[in-house]
Design goal:
7-stranded parallel β-sheet; Rossmann fold; single chain; alpha/beta; globular
C-alpha cells in the first residue's frame, strides 16, 4: 500500500490532462448537447484523466459538471488576472473547478496557456475560440479529439484539416465519448515521459 501511495505521489505527472474546448454560448449546439457534454466529462473521470478547461460557461462547463459527478479533477484557466475580475468583468463561473489559474492574458493568451498545459485537446460544440485552440494544439503536435454531435464544429474542423494540406496522424474523430477518450489517451501515451532520469553526472566548472 505504501509503495502504491509513494508511486502515486511521485508520478502524479503521469495523470493525463485533457483540455476540452467548446463554446461558452450554446444556442447553436443542438438537442442533447448538455447530456453529451456531461457524459464526455464522466468518461474523462472514469478513465483517470484530469479535465482542463477555459474556466468558462457553456459546453466546457457542462463537461466539468460531468467530471465532478464522478469525483474527478477539474482545472480552469481564466482569461482574468484575479478571481474578482473573473466573476465581475468576464462573468465566468467558479463552480465545478478544483483549481483556477488566473492568467491575466485575456482570451487569446489564455487559449495558448490552456492548450500548452494539456496533453491533449478534445473539441466539442464550439465557435471561433474552439478553432483557435484547435489550431494551437495542431501546431504544437498535441493529440486532438474531435467530438461529433448535433453541432457543426466537428465537420468544420475536419474540413480545415482536409483543406490544410498537412496530414495529421494525431487526430481522432467520433461521437462516442468512451472510445474518443480512449483513443486520445492512447495517442498521448505514445509520447508521454514516464519518469525523468539523470543518465550522466552534471559537470560544474568551478
Amino acid at each position: 500500500m505504501d509503495s502504491l501511495l509513494n508511486s502515486t505521489m511521485k508520478h502524479g505527472h503521469n495523470q493525463i490532462k485533457i483540455c476540452v474546448s467548446g463554446a461558452a454560448e450554446t444556442g447553436h449546439c443542438g438537442l442533447n448537447a448538455l447530456d453529451k457534454a456531461k457524459e464526455l466529462g464522466r468518461e474523462i473521470a472514469r478513465q483517470g484523466a484530469i479535465l482542463v478547461t477555459g474556466a468558462t460557461t457553456g459546453f466546457p462547463f457542462w463537461v466539468a459538471m460531468g467530471v465532478k459527478e464522478l469525483g474527478g479533477t477539474s482545472i480552469g484557466f481564466s482569461p482574468a488576472a484575479t478571481e474578482r475580475e473573473h466573476v465581475e468583468v468576464y462573468k465566468l463561473p467558479l463552480d465545478y473547478m478544483d483549481l483556477i489559474v488566473y492568467t491575466g492574458f485575456g482570451y487569446p493568451g489564455r487559449d495558448l496557456l490552456l492548450t500548452r498545459s494539456s496533453d491533449a485537446v478534445i473539441c466539442g460544440c464550439g465557435r471561433v475560440g474552439t478553432i483557435h485552440e484547435f489550431t494551437v494544439a495542431f501546431e504544437d503536435g498535441k493529440a486532438i479529439g474531435i467530438f461529433e454531435g448535433p453541432w457543426e464544429m466537428g465537420a468544420e474542423l475536419e474540413e480545415i484539416v482536409a483543406k490544410g494540406n498537412r496530414p495529421n496522424a494525431k487526430i481522432v474523430v467520433g461521437p462516442d465519448p468512451k472510445k474518443l477518450v480512449e483513443d486520445v489517451i492512447a495517442l498521448v501515451k505514445k509520447d508521454k515521459i514516464a519518469e525523468y532520469r539523470v543518465t550522466s553526472p552534471t559537470l560544474v566548472n568551478k
